[in-house]
Amino acid sequence: MMITIRPAHSGDHPAIADLISELAASSGETTPITPEFVRHFLEFPGSGVLVAEEDQQVVGMLSYSLRPNLFHAGNSCTIEELIVTQAYRSRGIGGSLLERLLHQLSREACTEVSVSTMPDNHGAIAFYKSHGLIDEAIYLEKHFR
C-alpha cells in the first residue's frame, strides 16, 4: 500500500478529531475535540494540518501554526500535534509528515520551526532530533481549563 501526504480538507475533520482523541488517550487524558473544532482550526489564519492517507483512510496527521515572529523578523512555525494511528506506526509515516512540513517551510522562507513534548518522552525527542531539531529553549505553559 502507498501512503499519501496531503493538506487536510473538510472531509478529514472527523478523522482528525479521532486521531487527536487517540493521542490524548495514549497519555491517559481526554480532549474536548470535535470535528467542528477541527473545521475552526483549519479556518484560522496560519493554521494547517497535513494528513497521511492510505486507501482513502487518514492514518496520521501533523497540525501546525504559522505566525510572524518579531525577533526573527519572519514567520515562525509551531508543530502542534503529530500522531500516527497505532496500527500504522513504525512505517516512517510520522517522518514523512514532518519532512513534508519542513520542505514546505523552507520553500516559504520560514525562519524557524519549533515543537514541544514532555521531557520524559524520549522517543519523541529522539525522533525530532533525528530530523534536525535541537534543544533550544524551555517551554512553559499555563492551562485555563
In words, what does this structure look like?
- The chain has 145 residues and is of the alpha+beta class.
- It has a single domain (4-130), classed as Gcn5-related N-acetyltransferase (GNAT) (Aminopeptidase), CATH 3.40.630.
- 32% of the residues lie in helices and 28% in strands.
- The protein has helices spanning 13-26, 35-43, 93-107, 122-130, and strands spanning 4-7, 47-54, 57-69, 74-84, 112-115.
- Strands 1-2-3-4-5 form a five-stranded mixed beta sheet, with helices on both faces.
- The mean pLDDT is 94.
Please count the beta strands (DSSP E, at least 2 residues each). Answer: 5
Quickly name the level 1 CATH class: Alpha Beta
Overall pLDDT confidence: 94
Give the low-confidence spans.
none
Helix content range: 25-40%
CATH architecture identity:
3-Layer(aba) Sandwich
Spatially, the strands of the biggest sheet line up as: 1-2-3-4-5
Strand content range: 25-35%
Shape annotation: globular
CATH-defined fold name:
Aminopeptidase
Total number of helices: 4
Q: Which superfamily, in CATH terms, is the homologous superfamily?
A: Gcn5-related N-acetyltransferase (GNAT)
Kindly name the structural category.
Answer: alpha+beta
Largest sheet: 5 strands, mixed
Listing every helix as H and every strand as E from the N terminus to the C terminus, the arrangement reads EHHEEEHEH
Count of domains:
1
User: What's the alpha carbon Rg, rounded to whole Å?
Assistant: 15 Å
State the separation between the terminal residues, measured CA to CA: 41 Å
